[in-house]
Design brief:
single chain, alpha/beta, Carbamate kinase, VC0802-like, 8-stranded mixed beta sheet, globular, binds aspartic acid
Length: 439
């Protein structure tokens, strides 16, 4: 049996946190493959080592002095090493880093050092083998993750060694240049490692006891989710629920490996299980609610649109030509609306409108900004009548105007568009109707 354990930055921010992690790993001999993040914040207002590295490298790239900043980063590691009473010096590593910063090795290289160094410390602390991710995680020339090559080399390497630490967040391109995933990408590394060793479970240790039904910044102490499917999670994380990087699902999903989100500070909590499919009913009809503000709608009207073959394609072409991806496209008889991210769309708005005029010759185009999209997700919705009815009556009772409704064909999600200013009230209303009143 093999478990892959990934620890987030807050779980590794200090020697004290490292000790908790050590206790967790030693409590179960199956926890054989460890993926650490870089040290995160020790207290609110603190700076993550990854952010310190980016800032430090930006000085180096601008040809300015960065020795003070690099020293502050080294001090973060030395504090951990001393607190754990390890016989380890990172002196040589930091000399190399300084040299490479001067040689302008790139921002990805710089950021990756956070995980790299933490991996060295972790391996020493546990007595596990350290494997530099640049030798086992691969990207292609274009910077796309190379799943096939990685899986072949990584699984071979890991079955050889048995107990290993693989730092998260980065890998290498064919020419050896270091490349990182997007922020929070150590979650992705954990998933890739779990796939490579065909782990029984991928434990993702963080500072919360799993996923909440709704964002705790909006709902006061929301209930947590015991079991969620990959599909549900994908919908929720796409719509802004954070805890796990949205790409972390794919590698394990292909292998049917469950993910267990756990809390380093409360190791006895069961956390959330993310699984392929389950016969376990969720406690409520809905599994979770998530949403994002800042969308724009582009409303297009044209007489007889419905009988004009290719109209939709021409409209979407205008967005594609400007490199803008769309979120939703609800349509009526002679109308269609395209929802896009406002910040992406703003600068190219006029080019897109001109493109639609040129390609599709519509009668009317109207743009509306500041729209929020809310996803209500749940495998229980498929078999329950009246879910949509309950959502919309809750919104109506709270005097919220619904601008868009889109029920995904999976019947597992309903997406609702409201004004940005109604966002929080709408989430509260939906949470109340399903969870607080337990309908
Ligand atoms: N340290 C990186 C970040 O802050 C990656 C990670 O923690 O997953 O984004």
């Amino acid at each position: 049996m093999a478990k892959v354990v990934k620890f987030g930055g807050s779980s590794l921010a200090s020697a004290e946190q490292f000790q908790k992690v050590g206790d967790i790993i030693r409590a179960d001999k199956h926890r054989r493959f460890v993926v650490p993040s870089a040290p995160g914040k020790r207290f609110s207002g603190d700076t993550k080592v990854t952010d310190m590295l980016y800032a430090c490298y930006d000085l180096a790239a601008a040809g300015k002095s960065f020795s003070k900043e690099l020293k502050a980063i080294k001090a973060r590691y030395d504090e951990i090493i001393e607190g754990l009473m390890l016989e380890l010096s990172l002196e040589e590593e930091f000399k190399t880093i300084e040299k490479n910063f001067k040689a302008k090795m790139g921002r990805d290289y710089a950021a990756s050092r956070g995980e790299y160094l933490n991996g060295i410390v972790m391996a020493k602390y546990l007595g596990y083998e350290f494997i530099d991710a640049a030798t086992v995680i691969f990207f292609d020339e274009k910077g796309e993750f190379d799943a096939e090559k990685t899986n072949a080399i990584l699984s071979h390497r890991l079955t050889e060694c048995g107990l290993a630490v693989v730092p998260g967040f980065y890998g290498a391109k064919p020419d050896g240049t270091v490349k990182t995933f997007s922020r929070g990408g150590s979650d992705v590394t954990g998933s890739i490692v779990a796939k490579a060793v065909r782990a029984d479970v991928y434990e993702n240790w963080t500072d919360v006891s799993g996923f909440m039904i709704a964002d705790p910044r909006i709902i006061d102490s929301p209930e947590s989710i015991d079991v969620i499917t990959y599909k549900e999670l994908r919908e929720l994380s796409y719509m802004g629920a954070s805890v796990l990087h949205e790409d972390a699902i794919f590698p394990v999903r292909q292998e049917g490996i469950p993910i267990n989100i756990r809390n380093t500070n409360k190791p006895d909590d069961k956390g959330t299980w993310i699984v392929g499919s389950t016969c376990q009913k969720s406690k409520y009809v809905i599994t979770g609610i998530a949403g994002k503000k800042g969308f724009c709608s582009v409303y297009i009207e044209k007489d007889m649109m419905n009988s004009e073959i290719g109209f939709g394609r021409k409209v979407l072409q205008a967005f594609e030509d400007q490199g803008i991806s769309f979120e939703h496209v609800p349509s009526g008889i002679d109308t269609m609306t395209v929802f896009v991210h406002q910040d992406e769309f703003m600068n190219k708005e006029q080019q897109v409108v001109a493109g639609i005029h040129r390609l599709a010759k519509p009668d009317v185009i109207e743009i509306e900004a500041d729209i929020a999209l809310i996803a209500v997700v749940g495998r229980g919705m498929k078999s329950t009548r009246g879910t949509a009815g309950r959502i919309f009556s809750a919104l109506a009772h709270n005097r919220i105007n619904v601008k868009m409704i889109d029920q995904g064909s999976s019947e597992q999600n309903i997406i609702i568009g409201v004004a940005d200013s109604d966002f929080e009230t709408a989430i509260k209303a939906i949470y109340d109707i399903f969870v607080t009143t337990k309908l």
